[in-house]
Amino acid sequence: MNLQEFESTYRQAMDEALNELQTAVLLLAQVQQKIYEIGNSVQHLSESVEEFINNEKTK
Fold first, then answer.
1. Which superkingdom heads the taxonomic lineage of this protein's source (predicted)?
2. CA pseudo-torsion sign 9, 12, 18, 24
């Protein structure tokens, strides 16, 4: 392998690694958003259940 082939191989590998890293970062952002949404859903569900329980106790 000569210097030009080595450089070409290196640049291709680096481009691929950086693209994969960018994809992973974007996926992480999506996962963080989904976790936030699920957390909000659980919180609202919990509040609804607590409200229902308190209303049933006062009947």
1. Bacteria
2. negative
